[in-house]
């Protein structure tokens, strides 16, 4: 099955091909023809299945016909978080580039004025979190009577976040004659009730979860403290035969600081996060793909959709707040038949987050004890280790470490790595005696100026740097289309 078999327009097929896809995922293959036939739909699918394009693509073709009207969006997509709303908006921008559609993103934490202005000019697609939408609705800034296509995405997460009453209210403001698409990873009774009440004769599609228990990925959690994290990470990077690693952190500042600190420790590391413009991200990504750098520190949003072959390790420097992100993150290794290793650093504060991850993946992640002899209390350099050599295949990243600081006189205490269960014991890494020379740490890619987007509104929204990314809060890039844009 190809995208060309699904009944999409030629302009749309072109942008899909430009995005690099020619084969639809199972949810796309099943959903797209039904949505184009204007049917209601229940899609049991979670992120990672390609469900976003499953509704975005047919919506673009449906909305290609018809006219915008002030204050009356023609379609509405409800998302539980700002991050997901922005990702859907990115999809619209990517796939809708050959169409004249306008979109507005209504999310909390952003000035309301520009959003209201966008609505006044008329939009084809409104992507919103329920809270901000209700707020604007109650202020009389928006009319939902012209909205005859509704998408309720991640319905079960909406339920967890207490949004169902808002969604019921929103549904009741929309025309009764409309098309409704509901996506949810699970179907708990309140979501079933919602679907029964607001969908009419829906087509039901269920697709398998993406492989979260992928046997080609060996997973471990490592208990540590906030102060001990960097030591544990450096230790694992040096001793676990890492050839190329993606390291995820929850905050953009952590990504920046960690990349810098790894560089200072001699690792060939780069960074990719939402504060970087797309061209800088691409440069950094290319360096990682080309092996110029062997470690890429990333935020979730920046790394979404990232497909790099041969990533030997994924490290969750922070336990992800959303369990889905765990699946996305670790899925970056163990690709194409290769075996990958994924480590998640867990502090006491992460108890709930790791619990949620284990609930989603359906089992306890085996714990590995990394005993650094009091790590977290002493400065990292005091326990500077020599890189380990194992010399199979691609050179381990530790072999490339440039030891830019003299090794301390303090006796180096060998770290012990002890798996607690399931895994075969990991041999203690032999300490090499000789100094390993390596290529110099590559310079950071110059940050290219971001070219203004077409019809970009001004003044531009200034992203907040801190705090970022508390659960449910915006932690992603600030798209140029934040307010409204011609696609
Ligand atoms: P989603 O489930 O919508 O969050 O999508 C998960 C990832 O799959 C995203 O990074 C998409 O870019 C990617 N994707 C979407 N459609 C396809 C496709 N047809 N083939 C391969 N990857 C896809």
What does this structure look like?
The chain has 487 residues and is an alpha/beta fold. The protein has 3 domains: 3-206, P-loop containing nucleotide triphosphate hydrolases (Rossmann fold, 3-Layer(aba) Sandwich); 217-390, P-loop containing nucleotide triphosphate hydrolases (Rossmann fold, 3-Layer(aba) Sandwich); 397-482, no CATH class. It is built from 15 helices and 16 strands. An 8-stranded mixed beta sheet has the order 7-1-6-5-2-4-3-16, with helices on both faces. Strands 8-13-12-9-11-10 form a 6-stranded parallel beta sheet, with helices on both faces. It has a two-stranded antiparallel sheet with strand order 14-15. Helix 14 packs across helix 15 (351-361). The chain is globular and about 65 Å long. Bound molecules: adenosine monophosphate (AMP). Adenosine monophosphate binds at residues 21, 23-25, 28, 47-53, 304-305.
Q: Which segments are poorly predicted (pLDDT under 50) over 5 or more consecutive residues?
A: 375-393, 402-487
Strand order of the largest sheet: 7-1-6-5-2-4-3-16
Give the oligomer, counting copies of the same chain as homo and different chains as hetero. single chain
Q: Whole-number radius of gyration?
A: 24 Å
Say which CATH homologous superfamily of the largest domain is assigned: P-loop containing nucleotide triphosphate hydrolases
User: Ligands bound here?
Assistant: adenosine monophosphate
Described by the principal axes of the CA atoms, the overall outline is: globular
If you average the pLDDT, what whole number results?
A: 77
Q: How many distinct domains?
A: 3
- Number-wise, the strands total 16
Give the terminus-to-terminus CA distance.
Answer: 28 Å
Structural class: alpha/beta
CATH structural fold name of the largest domain: Rossmann fold
Q: What CATH architecture of the largest domain would you give?
A: 3-Layer(aba) Sandwich
Strand content: 5-15%
CATH class placement of the largest domain? Alpha Beta
The profile of the biggest β sheet is: 8 strands, mixed
- State the share of residues found in helices, binned by percent: 25-40%
The DSSP helix count reads 15
């Amino acid at each position: 099955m190809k995208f060309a078999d699904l009944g999409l327009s030629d302009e749309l097929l072109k942008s899909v091909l430009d995005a690099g896809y020619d084969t639809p995922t199972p949810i796309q293959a099943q959903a797209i023809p039904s949505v184009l036939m204007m049917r209601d739909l229940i899609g049991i699918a979670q992120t990672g299945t390609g469900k976003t394009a499953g509704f975005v693509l047919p919506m673009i073709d449906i909305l290609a016909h018809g006219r915008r009207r002030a204050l009356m969006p023609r379609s509405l997509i409800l998302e539980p978080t700002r991050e997901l709303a922005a990702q859907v908006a990115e999809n619209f921008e990517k796939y809708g580039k050959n169409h004249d559609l306008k979109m507005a993103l209504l999310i909390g934490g952003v000035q309301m004025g520009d959003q209201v202005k966008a609505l006044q000019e008329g939009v084809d697609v409104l992507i919103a979190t329920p809270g901000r939408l209700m707020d604007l609705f109650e202020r009389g800034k928006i009319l939902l009577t012209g909205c005859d296509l509704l998408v309720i995405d991640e319905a079960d997460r909406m339920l967890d976040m207490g949004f169902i009453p808002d969604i019921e209210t929103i549904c009741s403001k929309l025309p009764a004659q409309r098309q409704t698409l509901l996506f949810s990873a699970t179907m708990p009774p309140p979501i079933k009730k919602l679907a029964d009440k607001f969908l009419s004769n829906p087509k039901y599609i269920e697709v398998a979860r993406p492989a979260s228990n992928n046997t080609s990925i060996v997973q471990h959690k490592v208990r540590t403290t906030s102060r001990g994290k960097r030591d544990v990470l450096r230790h694992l990077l040096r001793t676990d035969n890492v050839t190329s690693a993606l390291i995820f952190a929850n905050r953009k500042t952590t990504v920046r600081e960690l990349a810098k600190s790894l560089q200072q420790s001699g690792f060939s590391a780069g960074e990719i996060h939402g504060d970087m413009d797309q061209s800088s991200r691409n440069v950094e990504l290319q360096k990682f793909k080309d092996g110029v750098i062997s470690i890429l520190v990333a935020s979730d949003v920046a790394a979404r959709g990232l497909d790099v072959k041969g990533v030997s390790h994924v490290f969750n420097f922070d336990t992800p707040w959303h369990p889905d992100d765990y699946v996305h993150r670790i899925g970056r290794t163990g690709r194409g038949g290769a075996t990958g290793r994924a480590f998640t650093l867990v502090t006491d504060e992460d108890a709930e987050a790791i619990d949620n991850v284990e609930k989603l993946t359906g089992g306890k992640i085996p714990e590995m004890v990394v005993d650094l002899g009091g790590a977290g209390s002493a400065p990292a350099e005091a326990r500077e280790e020599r890189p380990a050599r194992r010399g199979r295949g691609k050179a381990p990243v530790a072999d490339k470490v440039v030891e830019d600081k003299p090794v301390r006189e303090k006796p180096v205490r060998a770290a012990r790595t002890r798996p607690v269960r399931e895994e075969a014991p990991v041999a203690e890494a032999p300490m090499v005696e000789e100094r390993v020379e390596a290529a110099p740490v590559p310079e950071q890619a110059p940050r290219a100026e971001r070219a203004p987007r077409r019809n970009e509104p001004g003044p531009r929204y200034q992203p907040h740097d801190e705090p970022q990314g508390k659960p449910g809060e915006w932690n992603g890039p600030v798209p140029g289309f934040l307010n409204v844009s011609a696609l």
